[in-house]
Design brief:
Shape: globular
Number of domains: 3
CATH topology of the largest domain: D-amino Acid Aminotransferase, Chain A, domain 1
Number of strands: 13
Bound molecules: adenosine-5'-diphosphate, magnesium ion
Radius of gyration: 20 Å
Helix content: 25-40%
CATH superfamily of the largest domain: ATP-grasp fold, B domain
Length: about 350
Amino acid sequence: MDVAILANLKKNAPTWPGMSPDRWDDLDSEETIESIAQALRAGGHEVTVLEGDLTLPDNLRRVKPDICFNICEGHFGDGREAHVPAILEMMRIPYTGSQVLTLALALDKPMTKRVLTYHGLPTPPFQVFERLHETLDPDLRFPLFVKPSREGTGMGVSAESIVYDEGQLQAQLRRVFERYDQPCLVERYIEGREVTVGLVGNLGSPVAWRVPRDEEAPRVTRGLHFFPPLEVDLAAYPVEEAGVYTSRIKVEMAHDFHYHCPAPLRPEQVEELDWLAAATFRVTGCLDVGRVDFRLDVNDEDQPYILEVNPLPGLNPGYSDLCIEAGADGWSYEELINSILDLAIERYELE
Ligand SMILES: Nc1ncnc2c1ncn2[C@@H]1O[C@H](COP(=O)(O)OP(=O)(O)O)[C@@H](O)[C@H]1O
Ligand SMILES: [Mg+2]
C-alpha cells in the first residue's frame, strides 16, 4: 500500500523569541521517523513522510496515500493532537491509531481522570487549579503532586512537583502557571513503583464504553495484546530527581534509560494492570495502540493508580517504552510498526 507517515518533526517546529526551551519536547526526531519508514518499507509498503501542518491537505491531495501512519502531536491549542485526524476525516483518508475525540481527551489529564473516575477506575484523587488562590479540597492531604493539565513527556514535572505544604503548593502552582499558561492538576502524590503497560489491538465484540461494576463479571479483553509491563528504575537516577520520572530523565537522559522489562511483578499483579489498561483503552475509546502509565502505592499494598493514557505513545526504537516492551515480548520493531498499520487496515476494511 501507499502509506504516508504524518509527523511533527522537532526540526520543522516554529520558533519565536522567548519560547520555552522544552516547548517541542513532545515532537519527534528524524531518527524515529526514518525507523518507522524503514519498518513499513520492510513490510512491503511504499512510504512517504509528510509534515502534519497547514501544508498537509495539499500534500495529501498530491500524494494520495491509501492510508496514513499518524503520530502527529500537533503544535498549538488544547486539541492539537486531534488536528491532523480531523483533517484526515474531512478528506476521508484512513489513518492509524485513535481518533479525534480520544486524542483531544487524553491530552487533557483532568478530563481523562473524570472519565476514569466515572467508570470506577483507580486514578489519584485530584483538584484542578485555574488560579493561584483556590481553596484546597479538604479531602486532599499533603504530599501532593502538581503538574500542567495538558502537557506530556514530563514537561513541567520535576522534583519540585511534589509539594509538602501550602507554601510549596503555591510556589509550584505559580511556576507552572507562568511557564505553561494553563490550569494545574493537583493530585494525591502516589509514592511507589512506576510501571507502564503498552498494548496493541482493538476490542473485538461490540464495545460498550463502560466497565462492568460487578467484580465477578468477566473481564473482556479479547482483541487486545498486552506487552510485558515496563518498570522505570527510578532508583538508578540522581537523588535530585526525587524518584519522579521527570522531564530531565525523559529528555536529557533518554539515551541512558534505566528500567526493568518485564517488570518484576507477580502474575496476578500483571493481570490486574492489563485489565486496568484494557479498561482505560476502552473507556477513552483508543484504537490500535496505546500505553497506560501507573504508579503502585507502596503505602497500600501496591494498589495500582492510573496516571494517564497515551494514545500516541513514543515510537523511538532505541528508548521508547512501548518499543522496549514489544522487544521484551520477542517482537521486532518492524513487527510492532506493521502490526499497528495492519490493525488500522483491518478496521477500515482496506484488504
Ligand atoms: N500523582 C502522582 N504521584 C506520584 N508521581 C506522579 C504523579 N503524577 C505524576 N507523577 C510522576 O510524574 C511523571 C509524569 O507524569 P504523567 O502524568 O505520566 O505525565 P507525562 O505526560 O509527562 O508522562 C510520572 O511518570 C510520575 O513519575
Ligand atoms: Mg506519562
